[in-house]
Amino acid sequence: MGTIEIKKVERKVIVGKKGEQRQQVQKTYGKIIYRGTLSLSDMAEHIMKHGSVYTEDVVIGVITKLKTCMQEMLADGYKVKLDGIGTLYPVLSSKGVDNAKDFSANEAITRLGISFLADQSKKSVYKASAMRQGATLSTQLYSELTTSPQPSPSGEGAEQTGGENGNQGNENQGGGGTTNPPSGGGGGNEND
């Protein structure tokens, strides 16, 4: 697959159960370092480099048509499944009303949007377990306050964990980001 760069972020969090003595401690969490965002044109060029017989303009045309048709189908209430990629589907939030006959979509719906669920089939490379096995994780310590690289305690640079050889190390073994505190300024609460 490839290499996903992870930065180790140090944060102060409050630990302990509610109603008991709680304390603030420093913990280290992992965050992905995004390399950038690829545009439609970037992806079309990348597809061409993989030996596609289609030129960049044809690839862009097909993807643009797919985008337009997906918007139409989602607006009509369909889920759109792209085999091997995932499913896009419309979602909403609404205010509750006391009596069903008083419910009005125009007044009660507070948000209408689109959600995405990555393909979870056995052969999918988007499953958490497949991503974990297929990607090499490269980590380096960063301070959240300065966002600058800090030397590791052993004086080395980046560490390598994960990869196809099964050497996954001890870095954030959980899936789905469940060990990350809430984003934003303060830090989260953890129950030990």
Overall description:
It is a single chain. The chain is an alpha+beta fold and 192 residues long. Helices cover 21% and strands 33% of the residues. The strands form 2 sheets. Strands 1, 2, 6, 7, 8 and 9 form a 6-stranded mixed sheet that branches. A hairpin with a 3-residue loop joins strand 3 (80-82) and strand 4 (86-94).
- Pairing-aware structural class of the strands and helices? alpha+beta
What quaternary form is this? Answer: single chain
Uncertain runs with pLDDT below 50, 5 residues or more?
Answer: 150-192
| Tally of individual helices | 4
Radius of gyration: 22 Å
Shape, please?
A: flat
Number of E-state strands: 9
Largest sheet: 6 strands, mixed
% residues in beta strands: 25-35%
Q: How do the SSEs run, as a string of H and E?
A: EEHHEEHEHEEEE
First-to-last CA distance: 35 Å
What would the average pLDDT be, to the nearest integer? 74
Q: State the helical fraction.
A: 10-25%
